[in-house]
Amino acid sequence: MRRLSGLAAIFQAAKGLGAVPARTAEYRMVQSALYTGNNSSVMSHVLSHTKHEDQSSRAAARVVSGTMLFSVAASTLAEEAHAKEPIPPKFRPNDVVLYQYEACPFCNKVKAFLDYYDIPYKIVEVNPISKNEIKWSDYKKVPILMVDGEQMVDSSDIIDKLFQKVCPQVAAKSTSDNDEENKWRKWVDNHLVHILSPNIYRSASEALESFDYITTQGNFSFYERTVAKYAGATAMYFVSKKLKKKYNITDERAALYEAAETWVDALNGRDFLGGSKPNLADLAVFGVLRPIRNLKSGKDMVENTRIGDWYSRMEGAVGQPSKVQA
Q1: In the prediction, which pLDDT does 158 show?
Q2: pLDDT beneath 70: ranges in the chain
């Protein structure tokens, strides 16, 4: 019975995807439910015109030229795909450990920051049922970030403190740009994240898709994964309806699309809210959207709004994960 009762904690992971209310009839129902350029064409052209030396020479020149252009383009794309914002070595932390749920948007917000600033970090995947991995801490939520022995909690506070550590000169400046940046960071925490759960669990099939991702990525035993996927998806489907009412959402997809368009409008023609480079607001929006990007809700959002171009630019700017083996 003790093992089964622990399953209710799995919704800490689901809460991360949309702030599930801790004291609602639906949440109690959740607990109850858990008990039960084409190189081939160029080459063909060259091979078919080998009778005349001058023609062959011109064709060969085109091949060489095309190959060089392709190589330059490929190199440029590779550099863009791994673009990072460098940090002076003296400000770079030596040991960073992130305690997380893989599917949690708040954890992904922190990871977007770490990845963009190319700060190597280790990941400890927390089992949302036992939470053994964070029993040493008085703080019982994720993300928890340990930076050279210092504990940091709450995603926005983590980013603020870490930004001050790694970019002290930039963090010390106070400009009108900071006001815009802070406005949209609060928008992420107070508005955007609340739209996610009603979209992620909008239908039974989408709820199953989401829990399949959550349980596959998370630190679950086979038994926990099986129970969580079906009982959790069923319960969260109903919880999402309560969240729609709580946040006055009539049409969840329309609300998601509107939020995406609102963000694009805020860019006002800029590549990023930060201008030529992402700022903390860009990283926050990208971070919370990253877990849903390959779910149906995320695919629909990209297909039906203008956010796709910005999202692709962010993928290029943030680059590959900076995580290292624990």
Answers
A1: 98
A2: 1-83, 174-176
Q: At what angle do helices 307-318 and 53-81 cross, to 10 degrees?
A: 90
**What per-residue confidence (pLDDT) applies to 223?**
87
One of 11, 27, 99, 107 is an active-site residue; which one? 107
Q: Which two tokens stand for residue 131?
A: 């939470």
Between CA 312 and CA 316 the distance in angstroms is 6
In DSSP terms, which residues pair with 150 in a beta bridge? 147
- Please identify which residue in the block is written with the tokens 């770490």: 114
- Please tell me which residue in 101, 211, 220, 237 is annotated as part of the active site: 101
Catalytic option among 104, 211, 237, 286: 104
The yes-or-no answer on residue 106 being catalytic is yes
Neighbours of 28 (CB within 10 A): 11
**pLDDT value of residue 153:** 98
Let me know if 107 is a catalytic residue. Answer: yes
Burial 164-196 (b: 16+ CB within 10 A, else e): ebbbeeebeeeeeeeeebeebbebbbeebbbbb
Q: How far is CA 82 from CA 203, 207, 280, 322, in A?
A: 37, 33, 18, 10
Q: What is the DSSP string of 163-217?
A: HHHH-HHHHH---HHHHHHHHHHHHIIIIIHHHHHHHHTSSHHHHHHHHHHHHHH
**Nearest by Cα to 247 from 195, 287, 209, 200:** 195
Q: What residues does 155 pair with on adjacent strands?
A: none
Residue 117 is among the residues annotated as catalytic for this protein: no
Task: Give me the residues paired with residue 145 across strands.
Answer: 98, 152
Report the amino acid identity of residue 32: S
- Told to judge if 167 belongs to the known catalytic residues of this protein, a careful annotator would answer no
- Pairing of β 150-153 and β 144-147: antiparallel
Give me the torsion for CA of 153, 156, 162, 166, rounded to 10°: 170
Catalytic one among 27, 99, 106, 272? Answer: 106
Structure tokens at 176: 């009108």
